[in-house]
């Protein structure tokens, strides 16, 4: 088992390039199933969830080869429509393969993704929308057996909640369907726009991505293309948090401030100075951090739930009382008990967390509870007096490529050990 050992109270200072976005790469890799050709995916992050997606593609009969940050996917040999249960269990978001396999193969068999560390992860919106497009879906013994009968057809779909995964699945089912699909109340995350841009480069006809209604006209076939994954906005927020909590300064290259319009003002409200340009962000924090009134997580363009855990740690060092309201996931405060072991003063009640800033954090032995909760522990450890050992770091590796190398490059005293 691997652990991270961090000796805190070292300022994070320096410059770093942000790797490709996990939450863009996963649907983009699934979307390759829809193309009959070769896709060259650049800036594809080296993350365990990305490797899991490539294993699913290989299992379907595609060829996946990685050359550094580029993955080459050849889907001309695709022959299967079933994703084995062990691969589905490896990664909850593998449900995003459903729409793509159904769209390309006309049938799909995969297991229910089940819940995850954040709580139940239902897929009712995915299922009901695909049924509206003509899919026949039988759910039994934890398996989804799907077929399209005479083929998927366009539909007018209203989402009850702007679900990211449901939006992605419907888009992928619609691009090869007969006729037009209109999806209303869609997710507006930048990763949705990245997926639409990729599919359009492969010959799809999608308009409206980034807004609340997406229109798709079905086409006969999609060809391959060369594409570059957008930068990871949550990893960018993480590095900004590392500089803020340690009173340092950082320059992020390959980071899009336009993806962080709800996040950057929070760092400024805390007293950080921020200069942002088209593809880089500079933050310095040479004054004690100040508490912020209230952060409410919302669907994009609101404050992202994935950055909530990061701010929970940073605000623990901010003078005053901050309030966070988590509106997206039921179970996104699981790392609070671990943060409290390090001296944080956080009280939670349902959706609400009240954070009292403290002068000092102390190193402790802590255990990651989920991907973003785990990185929150790392941020707290960077600012804590003494040594912190973080366990269960495979959860962190799902979303961060060699986090210890990146943070060491920025001045942290951090190493990965195997026990
Ligand atoms: C995506 O998850 C991201 N994952 C999550 O990032 C992110 O937190 C989330 O979007 C919200 O932005 C990937 O992109 C791989 P949702 P997803 O469908 O698609 C409910 C991370 O840390 N819901 O927008 O699963 C659901 O229970 C991860 O990188 C239904 O009720 O999120 C949740 O409460 C964590 N029925 C809410 O909607 C459905 O059919 C948002 O879920 C679908 C969703």
What do you see in this structure?
The protein is of the alpha+beta class and 419 residues long. The protein folds into two domains: 205 residues, Enolpyruvate transferase domain (UDP-n-acetylglucosamine1-carboxyvinyl-transferase, Chain); 207 residues, UDP-n-acetylglucosamine1-carboxyvinyl-transferase, Chain (Alpha-beta prism), CATH 3.65.10.10. The chain is built from 14 helices and 23 strands. A four-stranded mixed beta sheet has the order 21-22-1-23. Helix 10 links the parallel strand 17 and strand 18. Helix 1 runs parallel beside helix 2, helix 8 runs parallel beside helix 12 and helix 10 packs parallel to helix 12. Ligand EPZ binds next to helix 1, helix 5, helix 6 and helix 12.
Topology, please?
Blueprint: E1 2-7, E2 13-17, H1 22-31, E3 38-42, H2 48-59, E4 63-67, E5 70-74, H3 85-90, H4 97-105, E6 107-111, H5 124-132, E7 136-140, E8 143-147, E9 156-158, H6 164-174, E10 180-184, H7 190-201, E11 205-207, E12 213-217, E13 226-228, H8 233-246, E14 249-253, H9 264-269, E15 273-277, E16 280-284, E17 294-296, H10 308-315, E18 321-325, H11 336-341, E19 345-349, E20 352-356, E21 365-367, H12 371-383, E22 387-391, H13 394-397, H14 403-409, E23 413-418
Residues 22-23, 26, 93, 121-126, 161, 163-166, 187, 305-306, 328-329, 371-372, 399 line the site of ligand EPZ.
Helix content: 25-40%
| CATH architecture classification of the largest domain | Alpha-beta prism
Category from helices, strands and their pairing: alpha+beta
Name the CATH superfamily classification of the largest domain. Enolpyruvate transferase domain
Radius of gyration: 21 Å
Main beta sheet, described? 4 strands, mixed
Task: Give the low-confidence spans.
Answer: none
Shape: elongated
């Amino acid at each position: 088992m691997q652990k991270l050992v961090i000796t805190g109270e070292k300022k994070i200072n320096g410059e770093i390039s942000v790797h490709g976005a996990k939450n863009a790469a996963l649907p983009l890799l699934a979307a390759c199933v829809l193309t009959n050709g070769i896709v060259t995916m650049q800036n594809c992050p080296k993350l365990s969830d990305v490797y899991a997606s490539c294993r699913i593609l290989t299992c379907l009969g595609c060829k996946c080869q990685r050359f550094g940050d580029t993955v080459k996917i050849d889907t001309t040999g695709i022959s299967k429509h079933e994703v084995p249960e062990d691969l589905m269990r490896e990664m909850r978001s593998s449900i995003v393969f459903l729409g793509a396999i159904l769209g390309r193969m006309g049938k799909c068999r995969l297991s229910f993704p089940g819940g995850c560390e954040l709580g139940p992860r239902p897929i009712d919106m995915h299922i009901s929308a695909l049924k509206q497009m003509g899919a026949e879906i039988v759910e039994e013994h934890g398996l989804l057996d799907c077929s399209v009968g005479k083929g998927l057809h366009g539909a007018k779909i209203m989402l009850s909640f702007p679900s990211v995964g449901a939006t992605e699945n419907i888009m992928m089912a619609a691009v090869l369907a007969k006729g037009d699909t209109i999806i209303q109340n869609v997710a507006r995350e930048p990763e949705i726009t990245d997926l639409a841009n990729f599919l359009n480069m492969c010959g799809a006809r999608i308009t409206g991505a980034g807004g609340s209604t997406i229109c798709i006209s079905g086409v006969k076939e999609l060809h391959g293309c060369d594409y570059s994954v957008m930068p990871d906005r949550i990893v960018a927020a993480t590095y900004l948090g590392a500089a803020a909590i340690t009173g340092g300064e950082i320059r992020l290259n390959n980071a899009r401030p336009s993806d962080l319009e709800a996040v950057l003002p929070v760092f400024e409200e805390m007293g950080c100075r921020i200069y942002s340009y088209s593809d880089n962000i500079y933050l310095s924090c040479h004054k004690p951090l100040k508490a912020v009134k209230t952060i409410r997580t919302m669907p994009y363009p609101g404050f992202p739930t994935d950055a909530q855990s990061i701010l929970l740690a940073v605000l623990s060092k901010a003078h005053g009382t901050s309030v966070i309201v988590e509106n997206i996931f039921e179970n996104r405060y699981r790392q609070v008990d671990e943060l409290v072991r390090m001296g944080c003063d956080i009280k939670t009640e349902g959706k609400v967390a009240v954070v009292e800033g403290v002068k000092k954090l102390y190193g402790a032995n802590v255990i990651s509870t989920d991907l973003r909760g785990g990185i929150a522990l790392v941020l707290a450890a960077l600012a804590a007096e003494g040594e912190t050992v973080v366990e269960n770091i495979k959860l962190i590796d799902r979303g961060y490529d060699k986090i210890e190398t990146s943070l060491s490059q920025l001045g942290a005293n951090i190493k990965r050990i195997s026990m």
